[in-house]
Known about the structure:
Layout: H1 2-19, E1 43-47, H2 59-68, E2 74-81, E3 87-89, H3 101-104, E4 110-114, E5 117-121, H4 129-132, H5 157-164, E6 168-172, H6 177-181, H7 186-196, E7 201-204, H8 207-214, E8 223-227, H9 242-245, H10 249-252, E9 258-262, H11 281-287, E10 291-297, H12 311-319, E11 328-331, H13 335-344, E12 358-361, H14 374-382, E13 387-394, E14 400-402, E15 412-413, E16 422-424, E17 428-432, H15 440-444, E18 447-448, H16 474-482, E19 489-494, H17 497-503, H18 508-518, E20 528-533, H19 536-540, E21 548-552, E22 559-560, H20 562-569, E23 574-578, H21 579-582, E24 585-586, E25 589-590, H22 596-601, E26 606-612, H23 627-637, E27 642-645, H24 648-656, H25 676-681, E28 700-701, H26 703-706, H27 746-756
Parallel strand pairs: 1-2, 1-11, 2-6, 6-7, 7-8, 8-9, 9-10, 10-11, 12-27, 13-19, 19-20, 20-21, 21-23, 22-28, 23-26, 26-27
Antiparallel strand pairs: 2-3, 4-5, 13-14, 15-18, 16-17, 24-25
Helix pairs in contact: 12-13
Bound molecules: 2-acetamido-2-deoxy-beta-D-glucopyranose (NAG) (12 copies).
Amino acid sequence: MFSRKKIQVLGGLILVLQLFVFTSAQRRSSNPEWLTLDGSPPLVIARGGFSGLFPDSSATAYQFAVGVSVPDLVVWCDVQLSRDGIGICFPNIKLDNSSAIQNVFPNASNSYDVNGVPTNGYFSIDFTFEELSTVPLTQGIYTRSPAFDGAFPIQSVEEVFIQSEPAGFWLNVQHDEFYSQHNLSMRSFILNASQNISISHISSPEVNFLRGLGRPLASTRTKLVLRFLDEDAIEPSTNQTYGSLLTNLSMITTFASGILVPKAYIWPLDATSYLLPHTSLVEDAHRVGLEVFAADFANDVSIAYNYSYNPVAEYGFFIDNGDFSVDGVLSDFPITPSEARDCFAHLGSNASAQAKPLVISHDGASGDFPGCTDEAYAHAIRDGADVIDCPVQMSNDGVPFCLSSVNLLNNTLATQFRTLMSTVDEIQPAPGLFTFSLSWTDIQGLTPVISSPYSDSLLLRNPKFRTAGRIVSLADFLNLAKNSSSLSGVLIKIENAQYLAVNQGMSITDAVSDALDEAGYNSSTATKVMIQSTSSSVLKAMRRDNYELVYEVDETISGALNDTIADIQTFADSVVVDRMSVLPFKAGFLQNMTDVVSQFQAFNLSVYVQVLMNEFSSIPFDAFSDPIVQINTFVNAANVDGVITDFPKTAAAYKRNLCLKMDETPAYMMPAQPGALMSLVGPAPGPTAGPAPAAAPTPLLTVEDVAEPPLPAVVPSSASSPPEATPTSRPTNGQQQVAVSGLLSLLALIVAAALLF
Ligand SMILES: *[C@@H]1O[C@H](CO)[C@@H](O)[C@H](O)[C@H]1NC(C)=O
Ligand SMILES: *[C@@H]1O[C@H](CO)[C@@H](O)[C@H](O)[C@H]1NC(C)=O
Ligand SMILES: *[C@@H]1O[C@H](CO)[C@@H](O)[C@H](O)[C@H]1NC(C)=O
Ligand SMILES: *[C@@H]1O[C@H](CO)[C@@H](O)[C@H](O)[C@H]1NC(C)=O
Ligand SMILES: *[C@@H]1O[C@H](CO)[C@@H](O)[C@H](O)[C@H]1NC(C)=O
Ligand SMILES: *[C@@H]1O[C@H](CO)[C@@H](O)[C@H](O)[C@H]1NC(C)=O
Ligand SMILES: *[C@@H]1O[C@H](CO)[C@@H](O)[C@H](O)[C@H]1NC(C)=O
Ligand SMILES: *[C@@H]1O[C@H](CO)[C@@H](O)[C@H](O)[C@H]1NC(C)=O
Ligand SMILES: *[C@@H]1O[C@H](CO)[C@@H](O)[C@H](O)[C@H]1NC(C)=O
Ligand SMILES: *[C@@H]1O[C@H](CO)[C@@H](O)[C@H](O)[C@H]1NC(C)=O
Ligand SMILES: *[C@@H]1O[C@H](CO)[C@@H](O)[C@H](O)[C@H]1NC(C)=O
Ligand SMILES: *[C@@H]1O[C@H](CO)[C@@H](O)[C@H](O)[C@H]1NC(C)=O
């Protein structure tokens, strides 16, 4: 059963590897800026191969890692021993979680003492290598995709070496004492293996094991590395805690040339998951001549809030902080440290940015601060956004201001005004507290709240600044933008114009035009003004010569008809589409790429895609939970003109990265290939065996979707009276946001994976 699938998948794998074929980009000449022990670039070490995507230690994981990472990649293998003393690569001493051994050898589990702890499970010492080599590997971390399970068997250390031909090969011996107790010698295995294969590093948390290898390996280039566990864990051969071993680094130099430490040894966290200042460990170790490797890097785990969910930024703290660089990083996603090292480190303050994509903020830097506040805008500018955005809302006394939702309950603490809640069918079916029910004075006094779209997956945004900043008026927003020399434009979003005209007696389009005039924006101002709306009648009401008019397509589409685009062209200069309209993905995998971008561009309309976020739950597996790979895919595969993002800092850094300027783009700065992984996976795994219910086809954008009556004349009304519910009125097209949920939540993944077992 496994072998047939294996052949299929192997065929697919070769396909994927061909797509990622990379023309051996020359390693850049040794950069004197590296503050590693010997001044060479820090090593990228792939734990179990590309174990963030494929089953740890599988042939796919190793080959994929080598294919997409830096040319000097070091491949990591956790060694376990079979009953006949053959070394295999497998991540844990127990085989239960990362293989299908229960299916192959039912009832063959056992109980052993592991470092003093009675442990029940499947152990490699109970099986010969021949038996183990029939056992399929599976994804042992249940938040990752099980889609590649069962296709590849357990392999010997030597097989892994021959097949991946790595520049460096790192063996980690987590347990020596355990195997010794069962009369199996890691030492003999290693010494035998070292005659056949070239081992660059051997690490172990056991001091005696490393001491015993020093003399026999003295004539080789193999480096011995002491692996540190938790500070209060006991090192079995010295009876000291790892924390106390750390206090005498010169003692470690007597048997090892380096140490491997959990990343928090270097950048510790406080109790609220913010970074504390770095320790002096790397500098101290370098002073006595020890290399320092940092472990526990993965793109799909929570990281310190300081990194804003950008794993590339995290590596920067370890390799490019001005004080030191670690000598290597151990990662489950080796493409990301490859980018961090070769594309993003040492950018300097004046690395030039390429023209595309236009980086447009979404509610300012709303990934780090409450959206649309003075803080969010100030940071978006500082972070390098090209354009900052203001979704305009109206107070009941006619003051236009910036806030992402017309419903104040969505992003402020406004409980004291609950009595002013009302139901407005044109806006949302549920009762809300609408901006046009409060005065500007009251609104100014509200406390804004950060949005956290992935709080279900426990991925909160910057909790320390959950309620930072103040709501700003459109006038203040425009002045702030005008005073910034780095911005190229402002984007002003106008919604609910018809409702406000008819029911509240306000013209939001006039309010915006007046604010722009008052702030001194005109066709000769350096700062470009973009006016965005889902309503064609709003755009038609604006003066086209002064502004770039941006039509927001408010549904997920698979394409647009030519006459529709020609129609849009009559009132807009560019369009905003959601990311699912460009790169649809399902069950975490990119399906394919639509022609939406090129269709609009053929009519000279620029295309901006929304909304990009950094949280790994929002990123398809094809982009490796890496926000930079996702941006790169939209820019270089889908060819969008701009990205609308909650994290402008990440997109701005992307534009400046050095790999975009290289003659030959390295593999780790290639866009993801939509559909390539899907072709490996076949039908999405699911709990039901029957045919999947046919999903409604994604629609094409038609002229009817776009057409609207012109904006009605303003109907004067008593501004202070609360709005009446008007249940019979027809919602105008584009005025209701359709929530498009294509994103795979972490929870859904966990459930899907659990059902498979
Ligand atoms: C293996 O999976 C079980 C859940 O099925 C979990 O409780 C356990 O911690 C896992 N063990 C390892 C070593 O990951
Ligand atoms: C495994 O053990 C259970 C209970 O001990 C028994 O019912 C079952 O038949 C065994 N399965 C195999 C394949 O031996
Ligand atoms: C290991 O070998 C020793 C001596 O040859 C023997 O006494 C002992 O029982 C063996 N232990 C195991 C777990 O096989
Ligand atoms: C090491 O190799 C020698 C000869 O090649 C062999 O006799 C011995 O059994 C091997 N030991 C192990 C542990 O593989
Ligand atoms: C080393 O290679 C030889 C020849 O390929 C093989 O017979 C031997 O078993 C290998 N030794 C180890 C330890 O893998
Ligand atoms: C470690 O400590 C335990 C108890 O504290 C003691 O029994 C054991 O002999 C010690 N081992 C070594 C190697 O010092
Ligand atoms: C550190 O270890 C070295 C070498 O083992 C030893 O000479 C020295 O006394 C130790 N220093 C302390 C402070 O324990
Ligand atoms: C991390 O962020 C917190 C909160 O903004 C800040 O106080 C701290 O200094 C930051 N840590 C580092 C190392 O930058
Ligand atoms: C900025 O550019 C200038 C001129 O190209 C160069 O001399 C300088 O070193 C650069 N500064 C940084 C920090 O990269
Ligand atoms: C406010 O939030 C709710 C739920 O989070 C959502 O259903 C509603 O559409 C939002 N309203 C607006 C006007 O954005
Ligand atoms: C749509 O317009 C594009 C660009 O002008 C053209 O190449 C294409 O053939 C048109 N498609 C149809 C169906 O007319
Ligand atoms: C993309 O995939 C969808 C669903 O699988 C399919 O309907 C559509 O035709 C595909 N589009 C292209 C351009 O392959």
